[in-house]
Structure formats: structure tokens, C-alpha cells
Amino acid sequence: MPVCFSSAPLRWRWALGFLGWCLLWVASAAAQSGSTLQGRVVLERDDRPVSEAVVTIIELRRSAMTDENGNYRFENVPPGNYRVFAHLDRIPDVVQPVTVQGPTTLDFTLKLRAETEQVTVTATLREETTRDAIQAVTTVNSFDLAERAPVSLGDALEREVGVAKRSFGPGTGRPVIRGFDGDRVLVTQDGLTTGSIGFQSGDHAEIVDLQGVERLEVVKGPATLLYGSTAVGGVVNAVTGNEESHPGLQGYVTAFGGTGNALGGGSGGVKYGRGPWMVFANGGGQRAGDYRTPLGVIENSFARSGNASGGGGYYGQRGFFNVAYTYAGQNYGVPPLPDDDDDERVRERALRPKGGEPGELVRLNPRRHGVRFLTGARNLDTFFTDVQVQLQYNRYRHDEIKVETNEVETAFRNDTFAYRILADHRPLGRFQGTWGASGLYRDYSTRGEELLTPATTQTNFAFFGLEKVTFERAALQFGGRIERNAYAPTGGNRARSFTGFSGGVGLRVGLWENGALTANYTHSYRAPALEELYNFGPHPGTLLFEIGDANLSRELTNGIEVSVRHQSRRVRASAGFYYYDIRSFVFPVLTGEFEDGLPVGVFTQGDARFLGTEAQLDINLHPNLWFYSQLDYTNAELKTGLPLPRIPPLRARVALEGTFKGLRLMPELLMANRQDRVFTLEEPTAGYTVVNLVGSYTVTTSHTAHVFSVTGFNLGDRLYRNHLSFIKAFAPEIGRGVRFAYTMRFF
């Protein structure tokens, strides 16, 4: 009997162990009983096979590489509906839906122009298509950037729906999203701050290598859950593509020139991968002289830029790391205030800024050194399947220099160290999500004549999470962020700290085939900016004598946006509405007094609201003919009824694009309505219509693509003014001109 009792548990353990092994074997066999997904990737026009393209199943986060014949293959794909995209460095992605029930074939044709939905990573930190994104996302690819040859980030994006350009001359253009500007719009590169101070002043530029990036992504509406309180209006992310590994040699060369501003420049880069290792290098520069308008040449409006970057990394099956160094520099002039009211440009419209004394010639030379380190692990058999750590150090300097004497009037220093830790957890039923933490240390100081702000250190820390629940015809996204910002100024100024919560929920519901309704609600918190708290003195970059208030409280925004979208091969359409209610909105109230020739503006707070609409309709009228149209409008004011400053007017764009083999021709009309809803001392601007014409010719071979383009802009030589320009009174926009560009991609 004792032997029997002792052996029974042993037999049970063996039986349970055998049963467990059988269950594991059955589960393994079931997991391996999926189907194959295979196909071929070719280049447009001649159907030439594309080797070393990356094909990715978005829902499964699985990728495969094409061979020398352009073929790819996935094994053991579970039955289901998926979205799959093909990617080649600096070529627009192609996204296609597929249903896998058995062996399935899915072919791709890569085109140098984006005609369908694109893949974005900015909105959720995961790869997803712009159609499936719950927030409104816009992308601009490298071919469009080469064709536009923009002098500034604002130039690159001002034609996109919902995005306008604030400027103080050509070199300073910065994106304004749905009327939000300054510290409410965040500019990043590969998801982390660039360390520039373009947000704090109209005459400060954003330093981004526009010819070296793979694409620009714009998330419209609050992006505070993932990027923090400075993204309460949206985020612009420059994606370099240098954090991905591709085998073989790939690269690009771009050259451009133009009239109207004596434009010239070029850029080039290479990327080489061998096994799990990859190295890259990029560099380029451009120059633009003083630009011509129908009223004459705008003095001191030149712009120069130069950049270089390089690095490399290791990309194994489980672990990876990447190190990159970036240098970017600019040198640009700020058009001076006219000497007197007899100036012909001022007499034309009588729009001289009230107050301000005639300015001397000044140039700025911002430059940034950046070092980035990325490491992580993936495909882990733990709760968190993918973990990533990002570190970014930026050393930013810029001087404001008198042109006549070459003396430095004011020197700015802004050093930042930013980090972010991301962790994707394994799917829990229908739930997928990302959790993380981020932080920033900023050391800011100035010396010289324009000592508006005391030397200050700023720290930021946040913890956030974003979850997505996917159903057959709907997806629900929700998340939250807890963030702390602290300022420690010198000179006896009051230190401040702010802690707040941002949260949001979004819904996407399929209404019909290729059509969906999206709705978002966001509660966002923003700490006052350093400049709003501590500035005191004349600020020519905003044409104000600014007085900060160290007692300001945090802003709180409650926003909703609703849109309907349709995206198919023949029709792309969207229409949406947004409304943001902002408590304790920070703005400069004008006292009616003047100091140093400038109106006195005291930063104060009041309740405000932003509402607007965006619509877009693209129709494929014929296999070789597309019709494009878009419209956007923002109405923003304090709840007292006073309109807020520099809000874009009603705008529209209409274009036709015809193609024949490698030839492309696109005439377009850019239109803006009169803006007469203006802030105190702000002048109205008239409406306008501008005619542009773009032509290009594309030649492709097995491993290269050549694009020759010619752009005629403002062909009617129309005199028009950008309402968001600080100097629109005497500096209208550029007159008639032509740009030439050549771009070559090899892969």
C-alpha cells in the first residue's frame, strides 16, 4: 500500500506532463497550419522587378524581403484580413488589403508619386496606414520635397490641408496647424525634439534637412498623449528612414535651381547594409538670394543652409542599436522695417506695423549638432514583446548679427537632452498597446542686447500609455499621459512647476466599403512656455515689447473632431469638423502703450475657442487624369469675441494631374479669402488666387529612377500677402518664377 500511494502521484505527473506536451504539440501544429502569402514587387511603367524591398503585414508586424526577381514570401500566415505594404527607401509606400484563407498572391507596383494611402508612424508610434489612423495625418514624401525645393519647413507644408505658414521672411517659415502656432506645435525628427527655438519667435527658424528626410508627417489636432503638452495643436515629424536596415546599396542625388530668388542647391546620400549591419551618410546645402515681388526686391531676405549626417547600426533578430550624428546650419536675413512711410511697398497697402522704428539689417545663423542613440529588443517571449530606448542630445546656438558691422547683437544657447522609453505589449485578445516614459532637460541662456529671458533650466518627465481595441468594422483607441514641467530661472525669478493629465479616446467605424467615420475627444494640458513666464523687454521677432507673468497657470483644452473618409483606387475623400475649448489660454494682451517703439504686450490668460473644417476630394477621372481639391477654414477667438492673431483665412486648392508614360503635367490654383477677423493692431489682408504649373518626366531602369521637373509658380505675378507673416505690411510673397529640379534614386 505505501508503494501504491507513492507511485500514484508519479503516474499522475507523467500523465499530466504527457497531456501538456500533446496540447503544446497540437497548438504548435495549429500555429504552423497557416497559409502562404507571396507575390512580386515591380517598379512602375516597365514592371521591372525590385529587389531588397521590404514587404510588411501591419497587423502581424512581420516583414519579408524581395529577392533579385522581386519575389517575396510569408509562411504560416493565420487566416484573416490584413493590410500589407511594400517599402523601398525614399520611395512612397504602396498599401493593399488582402484576405488570407489559403495560399494567396499579392503583387505590388511601386510608384514615385503617392496615389493611395501611406504608412505613418507618428500618430501611434506603430506602423499604420493614413486611412486606418484615427487622428488626421498628412504625409509629404521626398519626391514632392525635391520638386518644391522649400527654403523652410513652413514652405514645405503650406500647401497641405489644415497647415499654413508663419514667417518673418523666407528663411523663418514655420508650420501653423489649424491656427495653432509657437509652443503649441511641436517639431521633431524621428520622434524627438530637434532642440531648436523656432517656436519662440517669428524670426527664428526650424532647422530640418528637408532634402535629406524620407518624408514629413503631420498629425493634426492634439498629439499630447505621446508627445507632451507642446503638441497641443499638433506635431510635425521629419522621418529620416535611417533607423531601418536595408541590405545592399541605396541612395539619392537631388539638384535644383530657380528664378525669383536665385535659388540653387543640392543634396545626396547613401545607405549600405550587409547582413545585420548598416551605415549611412547624407549631406547637402542650398542658397537663395533676396526674393523678387511685383513691388520689387525684398532687401535682406536671403537664406543659406548646409547639413551633414552619418551613422550606422546593428539590426539582429532580437536586438538592435543605431547611432547617428547630425549637423545642420543656416544663415538668413531678416527684412528690415522700411525707412519711412513714403516707401512704395508700404504706400501700396498702408500696412506698416504700428509702432516699430525702422530696423537695421540683421542676419541670423542658427546651427545645431545632434547625437542620437537608439537601442532595443524585439520579438521577445514576454508580456512586452518590443522595447525601445531613444536618447537625443542637441547643442543649439544662434547669433543675431548686424550686417553692416558683423557684430553679434544677441547670442542664444539652447542645449537639450531628451529620452524616450517605449514598450509594446503582446496582443491581449483584441487589445494592442504601447506604454512608455519620456523626459527632457533643457539649458537655455542668452547674452547681448536682447536679454528677454533669464538663463533657465527646464525639466520634463512624463509617463504615458496608448491602447487600441480592434473589431471587425470598428477600432477604439484610448490613452493617457501624466506630465510634469519645471522651470528654474536665475536672477531671483520665481521657479515654477506644473503637473497635469492629458487623456483621449478615439473611434473609427466602417460605414461602407472603403469608407469610415472617425471621432476623437481629447483633454489636453499645457504648461506655460518659458517665454510666457519670464520675458521682459523689446522683442523685434514678434514686433512687441513683451512682459511675461510668472504667475500664469496651465492651459486646459477639451477638443472634439469628427470626420468622414473614403479611400479607394478611384476616389479619395474626407470631410471633418473640429472644436477646441481652451481654458486659461495664454496670449499677449496689448495695453495701448509703446516701449522702444513697440506695442507693449503683457502675457495674460482668458478662455478661447477654435473651430474649423477641412475637406479634401481627389477623383481619378481617367486612368491618366486625377482631379485634386481641398479646403480648410479656422475660426479662433477669445470668448470675449476678440479674434486671435495670425489665424489663416479660408483657403482652397484645385489641381488637375495628367500623366502619359513618364510625362506628368499638373496646373493648380491656390486661393485664399480675405481675412478681416483680426487681433488688436493687426491689419486685414486681401484674398488672392495664385496659378502654378508643374511638369515632370520620369525615367526608370532596373535599379534607378530619374525625375526631371519644372515648376512655374505665381505665373500671373500676383501681388499677395500671407496673413500669417509678421512683415506682410511691406514684404508680400514671391512673384513669378520657375524652379528646376533633378532627382535620382538608386536601389
UniProtKB/TrEMBL annotation:
TonB-dependent receptor-like beta-barrel domain span: 310-704
Protein name stated in the entry: TonB-dependent receptor
Question: Belongs to which family?
Answer: Belongs to the TonB-dependent receptor family.
Its membrane topology, per UniProt? Multi-pass membrane protein
**Ranges for domain TonB-dependent receptor plug:** 130-235
Q: Which Pfam families does this chain map to?
A: CarboxypepD_reg, Plug, TonB_dep_Rec_b-barrel
Where, per UniProt, does this protein localize?
Cell outer membrane
Q: Which InterPro entries match?
A: Beta-barrel_TonB (IPR000531), Beta-barrel_TonB_sf (IPR036942), Carb-bd-like_fold (IPR013784), Plug_dom (IPR012910), Plug_dom_sf (IPR037066), TonB-dep_rcpt-like (IPR039426)
Keyword list (alphabetical) reads: Cell outer membrane, Membrane, Receptor, TonB box, Transmembrane, Transmembrane beta strand, Transport
